[in-house]
Amino acid sequence: MAQVFKYLKESGSTRGDYERRLREMPFVAGMKELLVQLTAAKLGKTSKRKYEMIIISDANSFFIQTFLEFHGLSESFTQLFTNPGSFDESGCLIIQEYHHQDWCDISAINMCKGYILEKYIERRAAEGVLFSRVAYCGDGQNDLCPSLRLARPTDVTFPREGFSFHKIIKNLETASKIKAQIVIWESGLEILARLEGHEITSNDCKQFKTPFPIGLSGVAIPPTPPPSPDEGKH
Fold first, then answer.
1. Would you tell me which CATH number, out of the four given (3.40.50, 1.10.10, 3.30.70, 2.60.40), belongs to the domain 26-82+112-224?
2. Can you spell out the DSSP letters for 211-222?
3. What pLDDT, on a 0 to 100 scale, did the predictor assign at position 233?
4. CB 3.0 to 4.6 Å from 9: which of 52, 92, 111, 162, for a disulfide?
5. Mean pLDDT, contiguous 10-residue spans, the chain (234 residues)
6. CA neighbor of 137 nearest in space, from 180, 104, 108, 98
C-alpha cells in the first residue's frame, strides 16, 4: 500500500481528495442504522440492553476517523484499534503497522485481531466491566482468529455473506472449531435484529442493498449486562 499512496501523491492527490472520497463512500447495507441504534442503546435511550462497541480494523486511522466523523459516529465507539495513518511533510499518506506479531499463523503479521479482542476483554474485566456476551462482525480472512477466541455459546460471530470469512467457515472442520453462534448476514439490520431479539424479513433488508467499499470490518460489539437493581444506590 505504501507504493500506492506514493503513486497517488506523485499524481497530485491531496489530503482533501482523500477526505472527499471517504465522505462519498456509502455504508454497507443497514450498517448505519445498526450503529445509530446501538449508540442510542449504549446511552440507555432505546433498549434495556447496553452496548460497548469497538473497531478492530486492518484499514487505517485516517480513513476510519474521517468516515466516522463525517457521519457523526466518532463517539459511538469506545476504542479504535487499527494501523496509524498520517501525512508526512510532503503530503503523502503513511501507514504504520498496528503491531508486529509472530504468534498467530492465521492473522496478518501487522495485526492479530483475536489477540486485540482478547486483551480488550481482559482489560475491561480488570476495570470491573464483565460482558454478558460478545458479538463480532467481520468479512475478511483475518476475522477468523477473533471468532475462534469467542469461548461461550452465548457469544455470536457474524460473517458477511459471500465474503472471505463466510467462505472459510463453509468448511465444516473450520466451523466446528468456533464455539460461538454463527450468524450469516447481508444487512446490518439482520445483526441488529439478532442482538435485540427481534424478527426480520427479507423485505426489510432489500431497501439497503448497497455496496460498502471502505474497510470497516472487524467491528466487535460486546453488549454489557443490564444494570443490577442495586446499581446507583451506593
1. 3.40.50
2. ---S----EEE-
3. 44
4. 92
5. 92 96 96 93 73 95 97 94 97 97 96 97 95 95 96 94 94 89 96 78 36 36 46 43
6. 180
Cα–Cα distances (Å) from 89 to 20, 159, 175, in that order, read 20, 40, 47
If you count them, how many residues does the chain have?
234
Total-model pTM:
0.83
Q: Using CA atoms in the order 202, 205, 209, 211, what is the torsion angle rounded to 10 degrees?
A: -120
Q: Which three cell numbers stand for residue 50?
A: 447496553
HSE, CB side, 13 Å, CA atoms: give it for residue 230: 1
* pLDDT value, residue 162: 96
Q: How far apart are CA 210 and CA 152, in angstroms?
A: 33
**What pLDDT does residue 192 have?**
93
The grid coordinates of residue 36 equal: 445509530
**Distance separating alpha carbons of residues 227 and 225, to the nearest angstrom:** 6
Give me the pLDDT at residue 184, please: 96
Alpha-carbon gap, residue 137 to 5, rounded angstroms? 28
* Distance from C-alpha of 94 to C-alpha of 70, rounded to nearest angstrom: 21
Listing DSSP states for 151-217 in one string gives: -STT-EEEEBTTSHHHHHHTSHHHHHT--SEE--BSSHHHHHHHHHT----HHHHHTT-----S---
At residue 221, the pLDDT reads 52
